[in-house]
Amino acid sequence: MSEEELTFWEKLARIDRRVFYWILFIGLMIPFIHPIVFPIAISPSTRDLYEGIKEMVEPGDVVVMNIAFGVDAWPECMPAFAACTKLLIKEGAKIIFWGAYYDVDMTYQEVLRRCEDYFKNLKYGEDYVYLGYYPYQEAAVAQLAASIRSIFKTDNYGTPLDEIPMMKNVDKATDIKLVLSGDTGDVCDYYIRQWRIPYGTPVAEIGIAMLGSSYMPYYRSGVLFGMSVGVRGGAELEKLIGEPAEATIRMGAINISHILVVIAVILANIGYFASRRK
Amino acid sequence: MPYPTAPADVFGLWVAWLLMLMIYSYPLYKENPVFRFAEHTYIGVMLAIMLVRTSITTTINMVAPPLMKGRLDYIIPIVLGFMMYFLLSARYRWISRYPIAVLVGAGFGLGMRGVLIPNILNQVISTITPPATGAGAVDWWNYIYIAIGTICAVMYFVLTWEHRGAMGYATRLGRWIIMIGLGAYFGNTVLFRMAMLSGRAQFFLQVLKIAPM
Predict the structure, then answer these.
(1) Model ipTM?
(2) Which residues, numbered 87 to 126 in chain B, qualify as contacts with chain A under a Cβ-Cβ cut-off of 8 Å?
(3) Cα distance from A248 to chain B (closest Cα, Å)?
(4) Which of A9, B3, B14, B29 is the most buried if burial means most Cβ atoms within 10 Å?
């Protein structure tokens, strides 16, 4: 059938996907030039994460921030991860950072940069420590629960753990108040299986949107005490700690992209059904 | 973060910007040599970093110190690791099956110890526990929907009886529930991709100094 014989609706259904990609890419830029802020309601899972940290963490408690997302997932995970870091510092927690991604050093540096105002009053080794990268996923996570020193002899900069003041009496899962795992994959599963179940250490998830439906059963059954889902979770946490930042602006881009996707789905379906009727 | 001023940082920023455009030339235009160059560069660099990072972390930090202190048992995982490389030889490939068997067995055993409680016991308890006193209509709707949905979705996979009569209605409903679940999963996946794309759109503007760093 030639292009001239197609009806308007059939032409709609046959728009080149690249046209849509261009519209999407340009549409996503608008909120970064002119921020469009929509009201954000707090979901129960994010509220439980926020309140869980506030209720459980006492000044001086040691908390693990597990970095299991790479640089590519910064737009999704970093806002919530940074917001939780700020909240933990406000609560007086001592933080251990480590990660299961080979580019974890860059992510750790970015966390420090985003929470610069909070870290400037803290002392490395006394208030926070960075142990670096651990390979081998679940086996390593299980071993970390039994003995942190069996995986990390030193911190990322070569200082033996016994010489780091905040690590003096910290070596196993029972010495850790809670674990927050920033994920793009299934590393949080390992903390559930190797930390939460055998040792009872509370675990919460800071995941990409894709993991929302995967981890919801764990949250609903109380295995996870809270959960932040994607940029949306980040924006909610920013609202809860009273510091709107990147995720709040990014939600504008997400909303625009969703409106475009919904319009595209409607147009494609109208075109499809119109051509079927014909 | 202010816009970088050091020449090396500015150079790095523009290289990243150009490589990003080269990658996006595929969806926004079509397959082309520029895209392939960026794709191969990305994969090569990523694998190199991963190899060096994993090897250094493993060999130097985790294995070498105990070995130097006389812990000879650490030789076992090293030998098992090297046995993996027999995968590359058609004649001696059978040797690589031993470390794979150890890996699979250890992984399975390790995973199983924490599976039953969170994945089965807690899920059953969560499904059959009614909402607390004073719960709203939405909580009750969720409770009933999840309870019926779980039972019907599980029934869909019961293949020892033919899906007819009452069983047929339940399994049909179960299939719908599974489709709704997969739809939600797909929707979340789209959300994640959009967020990543928005990150690139932001970076595009930041390098051009249209949006703040």
Answers:
(1) 0.84
(2) 106-107, 110-111, 113-115, 117-118, 122-123, 125-126
(3) 12
(4) A9
Among the partner residues A33, A210, A257, nearest to B210 by beta-carbon distance:
A33
In this structure, chain B runs to a length of 213
Distances in Å between the alpha carbon of A118 and those of A49, A92, B62, B67, B162?
Answer: 20, 11, 33, 41, 63
**A151 and A173 in contact (C-beta within 8 Å)?**
no
Nearest by CB to B123, which of A102, A208, A221?
A: A221
- Answer yes or no: do A194 and B110 touch at CB < 8 A: yes
Q: Report d(CA A207, CA A78) in Å as an integer.
A: 10
Instruction: Report the side by side order of strands in the sheet with A128-133.
Output: A128-133, A94-99, A62-68, A178-183, A203-207, A224-229
Query: Mean pLDDT, chain B, as a whole number?
Result: 90
Q: From CA B99, how far away is CA B94, in angstroms rounded?
A: 10
Res A1: pLDDT:
57
Say yes or no to pLDDT of A190 above 80: yes
Partner residue opposite A220 with nearest CB, options B58, B126, B210:
B126
Distance CA B17, CA A265 (A): 31
List the domain boundaries for chain B. Answer: 117-213
B161 touches chain A (CB under 8 A): no
**B30 CB contacts (<8 Å, ≥6 apart)?**
none
- Mean pLDDT across B181-191: 87
